[in-house]
Amino acid sequence: MRSALALGAAVLLLAALPNHPAPAQSRLEAGSERAQADPPQVEAGVAPGTVPPDTRPGEAFADPKVAALQRTATDVQRELATLSQLAHTAQDELDEASAQVTGATTRRAEADRAVAEQQAEVDAYTSALYSTLGKPDAVRVLLTAGSPDDFLAGNSLVGRLRADLDARLGAAVDRQRAAAKAEIGALGAQRTASERRAELDRRSADASNRAAAVSSELRGKLADTDAAVVALQKAQLERNTTTAANWKAYTDRLAAAKVVLPKAVDLRDPDRLPAGLLPLVGTNGARQPGVAQVVVGGDRLLVLPEETQKAVTLAIGALGKPYVPGVGGEGPTAYSCDGLVRAAYASSGIPLPGTVGEQYGVLAPVTDPRPGDVVFIGPARLGAQSVGIVLDEKSMLVADARLAGVVVADLPGADTVLGFGRPSLALRDPQAAPKATDGGLTWRCGGVQLPARSAGEAASAWGGYPNGLIPLTALCPIGVGSHALRCDAAQGYQAMSAAFGTAFGRPLCVTDSYRAYAAQVQLYAVKPALAAVPGTSNHGWGLAVDLCGGVQTAGSAEYAWMIANAPAFGWSNPLWARRGGGREEPWHWEYVAA
After folding, report:
1. Which residues belong to any copy of the NlpC/P60 domain (predicted)?
2. Cα–Cα distance between 341 and 370 in angstroms, integer?
3. Cis peptide before 23 (omega within 30 of 0)
4. CA torsion angle for 455, 590, 80, 73 (degrees, to 10)?
5. How distant, in Å, are the alpha carbons of 17, 72, 464 from that of 65?
6. What are the pLDDT digits (tens) for 550-579?
7. Backbone angles phi, psi at 115, to 5 degrees
8. Cα–Cα nearest to 476, from 335, 570, 314
9. What is the pLDDT of residues 331-368, one digit of tens each?
10. CA angle at residue 545 from 543 to 550, to 5 degrees?
11. Coil/strand/helix, residue 318
């Protein structure tokens, strides 16, 4: 267990692993340097009693070391969640035992009063008999009886009277004894529950202390992990930069040779090309439509349609931009894989459908891909789940979910490629795209996309990084301080804030947005009974905000406006956070549009 906690501390310290390349320096700053205002109250950002697991497999992460950190984080989260749940249960048991003690004590006190009252009644009756007739025994009845019948009747009455008094007093005493016994039992149960809660508190404190204490002994491991990630980031930056430079050199060479780029329609018939252009022969020996070549200084240069070159240039310019899974994926701030393809070709006047499957269905297929063609990515069991723009026989441009950005990546192997399409050719009648058949998790743009936990709540995991470890370069500012969200959520927030400002004369007030892992740990340490287990809060996905300025109060005009209007901008106050929903957090809002 110590090993798991030790590695867990590594996750706590590694606040963010930036996706996009940057100078080789420590990546531990994301949680520590972003000063965040305290939320209106300590809150979880997740429905009561739930710990949403991150069920993504290791290959869905940006890097094996990040995946290893995620597995370690999951182990730590599981332990913390188990302890938290046990503590909640123990507290419930303690509360129930305390209530039983209170009830038993009340019933015992009532029984004491009943015995006292019954004894007083007996004493009063006996006193009255002594003062009038004397002791009501059989001898007195015999002496005062006028006949045998009177004696028998009187003796029976005395017996019934004695039996009634004895029964009433005895019953009260029995109730008193039972109540006292129940009280003793309830006190024992309360003591047991209290001891159990205290033991769980000790275990939780010990786990927290151990996790905090291992930071120094794991400094070397953390440094190794951080260095490996930084190296990958640097390599990606170099690859992006080199690719952009190569593309510019190619276009500059065409310009220097005064090659006039033809329109796409002029290259569709390889037997009738514009003057000076030569056909390009494919591996099947046939001339390829949509591309050509020209001889410059004894070298042959590829000639693409003007629209294709413009589309690739736009995609090259998007390198390093953040990834978003859905709404807002057509730039210019952030892109999805299909959004990048659509935006690139829309810029050159070639309209394409919006989704991977739709693009697969209408683009003319080719077997010899050239720069500017698009590659559809599977494998078949996952369906058409991603699309990229071909650069050469080895690489492509793609908005990649795992890397959370637009990058230059290797073309996948033949077992993963579903086919190639050429946007510069005439679109075909829509064809059915391959559908997922494995019945497992949904893959999109190279990463796993988990569903929303329930209606009105944001989807959870996205991208290739764990909760709270999303690089800030993969997020977008919302225009308030250092607050940031996933780019589509940030766009929706800004539009919503503007509309709110029209209604109230001021923009939305925000106290919390993306919450790095380290911040979640700190919050959990403050109020473990209320805050989410680190690595589970929707704040850690960049999909939630905590609001102020009146919105934090259920029943206010500001809150009512949000309930009525926020859904139009993709935002929701989850049902569990509303009045009577389980844990009232009117200030907590989640992005649910994608």
Report:
1. 305-430
2. 15
3. no
4. 100
5. 11, 11, 11
6. 999 999 999 999 999 999 999 999 998 998
7. -65, -45
8. 335
9. 999 999 999 999 999 999 999 999 999 999 999 999 99
10. 155
11. coil
